[in-house]
Write a structure and sequence with these properties.
The protein has 15 helices and 14 strands. The chain has about 500 residues and is of the alpha+beta class. It is globular. The termini are far apart. It holds the Pfam family Gln-synt_C. This is Glutamine synthetase. Keywords: Ligase.
């Protein structure tokens, strides 16, 4: 049936035929932490709201990832406005079926103000607003995402089916046991192993197949270096669709893993003294009609400002300059949790300064361009984000900063890192990125922050408030490290 082959062509009139054999529909939207919030509704109800949207409690923008309301109530959802309803607008082009839930129909929503206006804090809407600036100039953006994540076995003695050994069991275990007691899916360092995935073959191929059926296809799927670590590179595509796929990829992994007694972990640094989990993003600008890569310079520049830029267009250079200038001001988006900054430390293949370079994997921004890549593959890989990030916010940030550089015709402020030069070396002239969420958030919310310039005060004030909540929770927590260190000695 044609209407199911290309969901971007779906119309309201197609829905009765599309759903003729279904009795329910699942809908979901993304909150500020990247958590999918949604519900199952009857087909009758769905059809009645498909055109105009439906009310959705704003509390999902008034609480954290564990449903605790923020210490300081924020503008969108609070006691004074009664935790009002927002408008959830259904995106028909996001249609897919959930293969691990009996192929129930699924649609994504964007959250709007009750009047229908774009909601400042809705991650999906933020990316829509950032993309619109390019679209108005006849340009489009493409993106790809790579996620690394640890995986743990659900601990304990079990005699029941695997499907009962889920993350709830893991959470219960961690209430009574230290995290290092949680067993890894596999042991040892086996990056790019051909045989290691066979230890959990049904799960490994189950994730891959579910992603293909669910419309968030994997281009590359392999073990990474670390106990029980996998990495997925998602199929490159239009940036808004890519953000959907990246957000839904985590949903796929968590859903499929639960059926095998596995708990996946996307936090940035699950284990001390081991590599962290990255969430690298690749971005390029194109002509949506011809698919021409607009970062590529057709005729090599005979006298570029830096040799690394010989094949990069003026548009690409300004875009890179915007990224480099804005990077320090948006760190709470690229590193959103207390734990994020445990990954961004020296000597662990993680970027810690404002830096860039052609095919340089230690830099914050890796330029991929000729002569080491074909012209159509010219792009920037932003390597600061961890796997704990919200894909919508990260991609919106990359577009917003890069486009600011284009609009202002910014010049690249620092030279590239040379081959063999590490971040923090004598030749690394870039500023050190924030070392903590508090430091990052203070800069993000400052009066003259570039974040305020590109996103506006409403979003910055809301997001900064959510990070203040995270910081306060940690400040008030007593960790195992503190207890073990001080119990007898002070």
């Amino acid at each position: 049936m044609t209407i199911t082959e290309d969901p971007t062509t779906l119309s309201i009139e197609d829905l009765p035929e599309l759903l003729k054999n279904d009795n329910s529909v699942k809908v979901a939207g993304c909150d500020i932490d990247g958590v999918m919030r949604g519900k199952l509704m009857s087909k009758k109800k769905f059809l009645s709201v498909a055109a105009d949207g439906f009310g959705f409690c704003s509390v999902i923008f008034g609480w954290d990832m564990h449903d605790q309301t923020y210490f300081r109530e924020l503008k969108i959802s609070n006691k004074e406005n009664g935790y009002r309803d927002l408008l959830a607008q259904i995106d028909l082009s996001s249609f897919r079926r959930i293969p691990w839930e009996k192929d129930v129909p699924f649609f994504l929503v964007s959250f709007r103000e009750p009047s229908g206006e774009s909601l400042s804090a809705c991650p999906r809407s933020l990316l829509e607003r950032a993309s619109k600036k390019l679209e108005e100039q006849g340009m489009g953006a493409l993106a790809g995402a790579e996620y690394e994540f640890y995986q743990f076995k659900v601990p304990g003695e079990h005699t029941g089916p695997l499907s009962e050994r889920n993350s709830s069991n893991t959470a219960r275990f961690l209430k009574e046991n230290p995290p290092h007691k949680l067993p890894s899916l596999t042991e040892g360092m086996f990056g790019y192993s051909i045989t290691r995935p066979l230890h959990n073959q049904d799960y490994y191929y189950g994730v891959y197949d579910a992603c293909e059926k669910f419309g968030c296809n994997i281009e590359g799927w392999h073990t990474e270096s670390g106990p029980g670590v996998f990495e997925a590179a998602l199929e490159y595509g239009e940036i808004k669709a890519m953000a959907d796929k990246a957000a839904l990829f985590k949903m796929v992994v968590k859903s499929v893993a639960g059926k095998y007694g596995i708990t996946p972990c996307f936090m940035a640094k699950p284990r001390a003294n081991l590599p962290g989990n990255s969430g690298h993003m690749h971005v390029s600008i194109c002509d949506p009609k011809t698919r021409e890569n607009l970062f590529y310079r057709k005729e090599a520049d005979p006298s570029p400002p830096y040799e690394d830029l010989r094949h990069v267009s003026d548009l690409g250079r300004h875009f890179l300059a915007g990224l480099l200038e804005g990077l320090p001001d948006v760190m709470p988006i690229l590193a959103p949790t207390i734990n994020s900054y445990k990954r961004l430390v020296e000597n662990f293949w993680a970027p810690v300064t404002v830096s860039w370079g052609l095919e340089h994997r230690a830099a914050s921004i890796r330029l991929i361009a000729p002569p080491s890549a074909p012209p159509k593959a010219t792009r920037f890989e932003i390597r600061v984000p961890g796997a704990d990030t919200n894909a919508y916010l990260v991609l919106a940030t990359i577009l917003a900063l890069g486009w600011r550089g284009v609009e202002k015709k910014l010049e690249i402020p620092i030279p590239p890192l040379g081959k063999g030069e590490d971040v923090g070396s004598a030749n690394d002239t870039g500023a050190r990125l924030a070392k903590s969420l508090k430091e990052a958030n203070d800069r993000f919310k400052s009066k003259d922050s570039i974040a305020r310039e590109v996103f506006g005060d409403d979003f910055v004030d809301h997001y900064a408030g959510t990070r203040e909540h995270e910081i306060r929770l940690f400040d008030e927590a007593v960790t195992d490290w503190e207890f073990q260190r001080y119990i007898e000695t002070v």
